[in-house]
Amino acid sequence: MSEMSKANAPEFSVTELSMALKRTVEDGFGFVRVRGEISNYRGTHSSGHAYFCLKDQSARIDAVIWKSAFGKLKTKPQEGLEVIVTGKVTTYPGKSTYQIVIESLQPAGIGALMALVEERRRKLAGEGLFDESRKRVLPFLPGLIGVITSPTGAVIRDILHRISERFPRHVLIWPVRVQGETAAGEITAAINGFNVLQGGALPRPDVLIVARGGGSLEDLWSFNEEIVVRAAAQSHIPLIAAVGHETDWTLIDFVADLRAPTPTAAAEKAVPVRNELIGVLADLSRRQIEATIRFLDRRRGEMRALVRALPQGEGIFAFRRQQLDHLQSRLTSSGSKAGSQRHPVLAQLSHRLERQSPHARLAGQRESLAAFKGRLYHWSRVGLAPRIQGLAHLNTRITAARLANLSARMDARRKQLTDAVRRLQKALSACVGMRFDRIQFLSQLLRSLGYHQVLGRGFTLVRDRRGHPLRSAAEVADGDFLEIEFADGRKPAIAGQPNPPAKRARGRSRGGQEPGSLL
């Protein structure tokens, strides 16, 4: 360019040139999609905006996400994450640089999503949210089940059908989106909403089921969001996660109290099988009655054995009476023997007296002999009385002890038998009441399912000559005898094609009945 051309070039200020470049770049590119790796990301600025760079092997570009767009992003920026962004290319005149203003951001491919999930999993696991010690046991038979899922899919129908089939329970559904940008927020709000219920018109569920059908990793991404996982971890209600198919795993599965492979399996884990419980209860009731009968039979046998083992009254006192008689015989024998032993002495003394003639001496000896006999008799009586009294006292104590022991044992056995009879009567009354309630329920079910209810609404039941119900017109031939049952009774009839008007008139004129009319 010549010097003259350079001199004639228009003159721009710095601002004018910067703004011209800005318009040129924005008009030339507009909205673009760029793939690259996030670099130099330090979180959001105090203003709420986010500033970072996108780079590949040989270039980089500045990027900015305004505060208004940052809150709407489904995936938040993370250092080193490969992403695909959509935005508008512009320039920043203050630094003479160009940049892209990002409006949407998503991970670049399954590999990036898996890396993001794994990073979140390690982070939440480090906080202890996945510890087994935090997981609670599900209630055995919940009264109310809360379900968080889409209200229009097959998932909710499968859950309701399975619960009603196994053990009918009340189900409270919180409809949410299970896919899309707002899904994570709605699921979080549903979990928190169920937890704040306190009763009244909407009672608090005993267990929660968070469910969704199968899909790709992108379809299930809402259940990998940190807000959903934290809401599930903070739930005071036991939670079952049933997201996707058996091979699908999301972060909510790790934090839930129980993970079900499918929504149908979640319904099976939430309630037991009613018929199986009825069978178990019936078996336990039968075993309890049999055990009670065996217990009473065993106690009755033990009572009879104890009664037979107790000695009779005569047997208790016979031994002591025999001992008393034996002691009395020995005492009498001892007295007689002592007397016989003294007779030779007396004879000798008498002989000596006879040889001694002084009568005074003889009288003195006689008085001494009489005194000696008195003392002998006295001592024999004094020695025998304590023995007899001691034996009588011993006999009285033995009798009282035997009677007290027998009475106490009989009272204890009588009390045990009375308690056993009372428990048996109570158990039999409970069993009879339960059987009566079952019969009442089956009778009511029979009345509600019977065909008489249908007849009451204006329908009729047609039977053939043998009383078999007829279900189609092809089973009836003209002239067949029929029986028609109404709600208030039965009427016979004959099947036949209606006659033309003229023939019907002639038939009536002859006093006959039309074929097919009621008899």
Concise overview:
With 519 residues, the protein is of the alpha/beta class. The chain has 14 helices and 13 strands.
Structure, explained:
By secondary structure, the chain is α/β, with parallel strands linked by helices. It folds into four domains: 96 residues, Nucleic acid-binding proteins (OB fold (Dihydrolipoamide Acetyltransferase, E2P)), CATH 2.40.50; 131 residues, 3-Layer(aba) Sandwich (Rossmann fold), CATH 3.40.50.9100; 97 residues; 49 residues, no CATH class. The protein is built from 14 helices and 13 strands. Strands 1-2-3-5-4 form a five-stranded mixed beta barrel. Helix 6 packs parallel to helix 7. The C terminus is likely disordered.
Our measurement of the CA-to-CA distance between the termini, rounded to an integer number of angstroms, reads 122 Å
CATH class category label of the largest domain: Alpha Beta
Structural class: alpha/beta
Q: Quick one: how many beta strands?
A: 13
Report the major sheet: 5 strands, mixed, barrel
What is the C-alpha radius of gyration, as a whole number of Å? 56 Å
Query: Beta-strand percentage?
Result: 15-25%
Write the CATH homologous superfamily of the largest domain: Dehydroquinase, class II
- Strand arrangement within the widest β-sheet reads 1-2-3-5-4
Q: What is the average per-residue confidence, as pLDDT, rounded to a whole number?
A: 80
Going by CATH, the architecture of the largest domain would be: 3-Layer(aba) Sandwich
What is the domain total for the residues? 4
Fraction of residues in helices? 40-55%
Q: Looking at CATH, which topology of the largest domain would you report?
A: Rossmann fold
Shape: elongated
Query: Are there runs of 5+ residues with pLDDT below 50, and where?
Result: 502-519
Count the DSSP helices.
Answer: 14
Order of helices and strands: HHEEEHEEHEHEHEHEHEHHHHHEEEH
